[in-house]
Amino acid sequence: MSPNDGDAPAVELDGLKLAFHAGTPDQRIALDNLSLALNRGDFAVVIGSNGAGKSTLLNVISGALRPDAGSIAVDGVDVTRAPVHRRAAMIGRVFQDPMLGTAPALSIEENLALASMRGRRRGLGLALDHAARSRFAALLEPFGLGLEKRMAAPASLLSGGQRQVLALVMASLVRPRVLLLDEHTAALDPGTAALVMQATQRIVAEGGLTTLMITHNMAQAVEYGNRLLAMDAGRIKLDIAGAEKTSLSIDDLVRRFAGDADHVLLRSRANMAAGPADATGAKG
Amino acid sequence: MDALVLYWNLVPVTLVQGLAYALVALAVMIPFRILSVPDLSSEGVFPLGACVAAALIAAGVSPIAATLAAIVAGFFAGVTTALIHLKFRVHSLLAGILTITMLWSVNLRVLGKPNQPIFGQPNLFDWISPAILMNLNLQILVFAVLLAVLVGALWWGLQTHAGLALRGVGANPSLAPALGVNVVLYTSAGLGLASCFSALAGALLAQQQGYGDVGMGVGMLVNGLASVIIGESITGRRTLLRQVLAPVVGSIAYYQLASLALSIGLEPSDLKIATGGFVLLTIGWPVLLGRKTPASRAF
Ligand SMILES: Nc1ncnc2c1ncn2[C@@H]1O[C@H](COP(=O)(O)OP(=O)(O)OP(=O)(O)O)[C@@H](O)[C@H]1O
Ligand SMILES: [Mg+2]
């Protein structure tokens, strides 16, 4: 599965279908013939109401879920059937729950060492030596959280925000072909969420990473990324890019993304009015 | 006073026991603490090691080859438990019980009968030096050196990239695949490795005692568990070194405590309920006090 460096899109999804409880009265169509191409370096923000299929989309790309139909290619390599640990070489991921993105019983430096071998053969060389330790400390330092001084502390001692920053660094330590962020600031207080978003922006920009970020926060959706995808009922309903995305305001967004998802957007707007830093919307 | 003299005289014997069974305690600790996949199968893998070694030695195979074969058999038993657990989505405790149950038949088949004496046959201890089996101090030395080497290797191995991945699987099984770690492979290898320790213990004890017996494993698991709990209460679990030393320290302490209890007048047949009660108490008292300590978390 060596990524080709030709002109293939970073991510190419073709005709993805996925239904939960298919054939029962409980049937939920999470992905409905969804196709999408992300160009290299695209930072796409995904919005949409609860149950629109956003997490399912990311789970299908990461391999946590298999689609019923359709194909997934990352950098031109078809990974539709590859198990999570095989395609992990190409994919970095941060979850909503800060507990999920790090190994709590391992120290900060051990977490980083673990992540530094993503997609590589793990042999019997020592995972941490002096060089690795200073490399990892240097990676954490720019975030200004002081984590570089606590390298031997278990990750379980970190706050939610600190963990999310560590998880972000871990997800991008081996350059991913695509970075998947599923509401990775939703569990944090507004100040910490802003801090983690700064860290995200820095990591994405420095690595020129192709990124897919889910959020319910309309301020984030407008501020970050070069592309905005609005999902509804398993489909991409709106795809705004380029200058249009750059000049997009929250009001534009609400006007254009009408329909079923209205309430989420409106509630997010109300949150915006209450406090600009916090607009975690329906999840908040 | 008599009781203490009795205890004191038994110290060399019980020290050999404590060191030998430390291998089983290590085999209990690895799944529980490193992989967070509690596994009971030592109870069947220990006699598997004894039976394989005894059967092969009785058939004229060299004790080194017989011991290695026992270790390999143990590895496959551990992998079996792991695969039952992961592939059929059976709880690891039940998977271990299934393995123990099936191993009972395997052990009888291997041995061909419930008990196989190997007195007078070549064995690993005689191969090192014929003086060892006559001399408890030498046995203590042999087991101590063996444990130092194995615990050292384990400590080092868990700090390699592969070892860190193994600990990663235990620490966060949903993160591990996202970091490219094959959970099935590593869990199988981890349980396999742990079972190697149990099987080695069985093979060595069969050769030390001069027979292999299908009933050798009874109670092994709870003794191992008690050893791990005692050990962790002494060493703590703050560092990896403390974690891998805990089973050894605990096993030594456990067999001394058991010997003391017997010297004071506890019937040998009551030892198991005493051990079970002790394990329960250690796990239970933090809960009764309304707080859970790290020592009780995974049990
Ligand atoms: N494991 C599951 N079992 C059954 N149905 C599921 C499962 N996961 C998701 N669904 C259903 O699939 C649909 C899409 O869910 P998904 O989690 O992708 O939504 P989402 O857009 O991420 O929503 P949210 O904003 O609430 O996180 C929903 O109808 C949901 O109920
Ligand atoms: Mg979701």
- The percent range for strand residues of chain B is under 5%
- What sort of overall outline of chain B do the alpha carbons produce when their principal axes are compared? globular
Structural class of chain A: alpha/beta
Query: Quick one: which chains have the greatest interface?
Result: A-B, 32 and 23 residues
Ligand inventory:
adenosine-5'-triphosphate, magnesium ion
The number of distinct helices of chain A, counting runs of at least 4 residues, comes to 10
What is the averaged pLDDT score of chain B? 92
Share of residues in helices of chain A: 25-40%
Largest sheet of chain A: 6 strands, mixed
Radius of gyration of chain A: 19 Å
* Helix percentage range of chain B: over 70%
* Beta-strand content of chain A: 15-25%
Label the structural class of chain B: mainly alpha
Do you know the CATH topology of chain B? Answer: ABC transporter involved in vitamin B12 uptake, BtuC
User: Helix and strand string of chain B, N-terminal first?
Assistant: HHHHEHHHHHEHHH
